[in-house]
Amino acid sequence: MRHLRSILSTLAILLAGFAMQAADGDSIVRPVNVAYTAEYGAASLLDTYLTPIRYEGWHVRLGYERNQAMRFSPRKWLMQMSFGVRYDNVQNIVKNRTMHSLMVDFNWGMMHRWRDVASVKGLQLMGGGSTLFDGGATYNQYNSNNPVSVKIRWSVNLTGMAVYNMNIGKLPLTLRYQATIPVAGLFFSPEYGEAFYEIYLGNTRSLVNFGWWGNRFDMTNLLTADLHFGATSLRIGYRNTIENSWVHNLNTQVSTHSLVIGVSGEWMSVNPRRDINHNAKIITALY
Q: Which residues have C-beta within 8 Å of that of residue 202, sequence separation ≥ 6?
């Protein structure tokens, strides 16, 4: 009987805790910050699997980004997800050869947030980790034996962000700088001169490589300004990407510089079967 009372008491405490958590969840609203962007700029590409010559040209990317305060500790933790499709059209120095690169990237991460840093109102600093999947191919139509270089990588990253909310006259403005650096991961690379037909025949040795700063260094820098004209904001900015790897006597160096332009805003989901709590605390992701 004593054990039964202990079990019932424990269940009652757990149910009370869940009820308090649900009540707290009802009193907090976490708007989703979403941005749709298009980018255009310059690309520089060196892939010695295809050619020892560096190619340069133009770069475009379509991107989607989502930021939201986490459910378990919304005031201190932020979730970020991004997705992008990018295309590079690059030529050699005499402009008589062209390579095409098409890549897809997906990133998800969490960051801890510090508000009003150094007593500066509106300044937020965030730091944490993320994971990235990136895949695609580079095509050189003039190569007869190895015309395609396949690129696949997965990485665990460090990421940090600074956000500053201010006003220019009566116009609200959000400035943001974010840097992401992979620390470790896995990436695909064939041997020097190895054709994909050899891989098809079963030569799969050393195709998957452990990536670290000794054989791979990547970095993304993103600077944006959101101009809040109303419910929807105009986003302008700059993105720089660096991707370097050296393995199996193969050297890959890719860098891009691009202008970012798009729209952003915050959306709140409403459950039609539940009443809206008008006293709920709104915790935004960036704004």
A: none
Contacts of 266 (CB under 8 A, 6+ apart): 31, 32, 33, 34, 284, 285, 287
Cα–chain-centroid distance for residue 168?
Answer: 29
What is the Cα–Cα distance from 115 to 87, expressed in whole angstroms? 37
pLDDT tens digit sequence for 187-237: 999 998 888 888 888 888 889 999 999 999 999 999 999 999 988 999 999
Q: Which residue has the higher pLDDT, 72 or 184?
A: 184
Sorted by sequence, the CB contacts under 8 Å of residue 46 that are 6+ apart come out as 53, 54, 55, 251, 252, 253, 254
Q: Report the 3 state secondary structure along 193-210.
A: CCCHHHHHCCCCCCCEEE
Tokens of 65: 């980004």
Among candidate residues 23, 107, 17, 32, the one with its CA nearest the CA of residue 70: 32
- Residue 161: strand, helix, or coil: strand
Burial annotation 233-270 (CB, 10 A radius, 16+ → b, else e):
bebebbbebebebebbebebebbbebebebebbbeeee
Q: Where are the beta strands (DSSP E) in the chain?
A: 28-29, 32-47, 55-69, 77-91, 98-115, 123-140, 148-168, 171-188, 208-211, 216-228, 232-247, 250-267, 281-282
**pLDDT attached to residue 190:** 93
On the question of pLDDT at 67 being above 50, the answer is yes
DSSP state of 119: G
Name the residue type at position 254: V
Q: Both tokens of residue 58?
A: 């133009």
**Per the structure block, which two tokens stand in for 166?**
């201010």
Q: What sign does the dihedral 50-54-55-60 (CA atoms) show?
A: positive
Q: CA 67 to CA 256: how far, in whole Å?
A: 24
- Global pTM reads 0.85
